């Protein structure tokens, strides 16, 4: 348990008081996550009806993206969203964001009710946000964004391969060749992406960032961590909707809502978009993983999985 002095002097508490000077003091501060680029804390007893508040400290660039989502997008779309208390700037140039604590449980892709809930939430977000004029000024999250991930990962892998063991070099060289094959067919990826209009994209719609809350009457979904959000074809988001064994209930629910705004959308197009989204997410993961070559054992193990997944995608697309 933190002492009163420790709580009051904590940077999260100081930033909270800077945002809301007349608010109460947190009774306790707990660390939820602490990484190289972001840290997340729970401030107990300071929110609406003395509820806990999540305080996220991040770089100014990603903080600005999240602020725009909470301030300019989510209030104007018909989806459940966390209460946003506001933001405070740090003296070091960083940014604090203060949000309602979602609670609930992480979204489970293996649970059909969760997938249907996710599908309906995403369809409402995507179709509504596409009509918000300021949304188009968000960072690019179209196919070029993921092509840049591919190229960045390939450059980093080539540099890191020189310090790897022989078996790891073979693995990394295979991934480089796979990236070459995928880039040579990128025009097809762009053609498939053209089946859907651009809109606001979360970009990292994974269980850790999506919670399902049940109040006894209905389930509500809350998405958080919008630092990778932007404007583009929502393939990476929609990839979360199809079941792990190919079930279509989620995609059917998405289609039933999306076609009210996009009447030309078809299931065949959605199925292609799912495959594009899986590829986009894989390329982003490889890029992020390639930046961790200082921790070889973990990154090489992940790269082995990435190689297998890319091989399956290339085979499915019949690329050579």
Low-confidence stretches: 1-5
Please tell me the overall pLDDT: 91
- What's the helical proportion of residues? 40-55%
CATH class of the largest domain: Alpha Beta
Any idea what the radius of gyration is? Answer: 21 Å
CATH architecture of the largest domain: Alpha-Beta Complex
How many DSSP helices? 11
Order of helices and strands: HHEEEHEEEHHHHEEEEHHHH
Tally of separate domains: 2
In the sheet with the most strands, the strands line up as 1-2-3-5-4
Taken from the alpha-carbon principal axes, the silhouette is globular
Q: Tell me the fraction of residues in β-strands, as a range.
A: 15-25%
Q: What class would the helix/strand composition place it in?
A: alpha+beta
Major sheet, described briefly? Answer: 5 strands, antiparallel
Question: How would you characterize the overall build of this protein?
Answer:
By secondary structure, the protein is of the alpha+beta class. About 50% of the residues lie in helices and about 15% in strands. It has eleven helices and ten strands. The protein has a five-stranded antiparallel β-sheet, sandwiched between helices. A three-stranded antiparallel β-sheet has the order 6-8-9, with helices on one face. A hairpin with a 5-residue loop joins strand 4 and strand 5.
């Amino acid at each position: 348990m933190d002492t009163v002095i420790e709580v009051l002097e904590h940077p999260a508490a100081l930033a909270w008081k800077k945002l809301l000077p007349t608010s109460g003091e947190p009774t306790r501060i707990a660390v939820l996550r602490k990484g190289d680029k972001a840290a997340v804390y729970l401030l107990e007893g300071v929110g609406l009806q003395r509820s806990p508040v999540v305080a996220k400290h991040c770089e100014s660039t990603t903080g600005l993206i999240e602020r725009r989502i909470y301030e300019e997008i989510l209030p104007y779309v018909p989806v459940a969203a966390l209460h946003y208390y506001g933001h405070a700037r740090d003296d070091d140039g960083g940014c604090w964001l203060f949000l309602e604590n979602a609670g609930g449980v992480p979204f489970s892709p293996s649970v059909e009710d969760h997938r249907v809930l996710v599908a309906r939430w995403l369809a409402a977000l995507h179709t509504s946000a596409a009509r918000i004029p300021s949304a188009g000024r968000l960072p690019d999250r179209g196919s070029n964004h993921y092509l840049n991930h591919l190229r960045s990962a390939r450059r980093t892998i080539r540099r890191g391969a020189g310090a790897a063991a022989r078996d790891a070099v073979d693995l990394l060289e295979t991934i480089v060749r796979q990236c070459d094959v995928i880039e040579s067919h990128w025009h097809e990826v762009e053609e498939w992406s053209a089946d859907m209009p651009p809109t606001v994209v979360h970009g990292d719609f994974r269980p850790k960032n999506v919670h399902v809350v049940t109040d006894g009457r209905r389930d509500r979904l809350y998405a958080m961590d919008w630092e990778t959000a932007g404007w583009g074809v929502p393939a990476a988001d929609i990839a979360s909707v199809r079941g792990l064994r190919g079930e279509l209930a989620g995609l059917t629910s998405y289609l039933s809502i999306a076609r009210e705004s996009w009447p030309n959308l078809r299931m065949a197009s959605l199925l292609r978009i799912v495959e594009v989204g899986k590829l986009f997410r894989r390329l982003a993961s490889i890029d992020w993983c390639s930046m961790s070559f200082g921790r070889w054992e973990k990154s090489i193990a992940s790269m082995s999985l990435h190689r297998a997944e890319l091989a399956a995608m290339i085979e499915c697309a019949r690329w050579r």
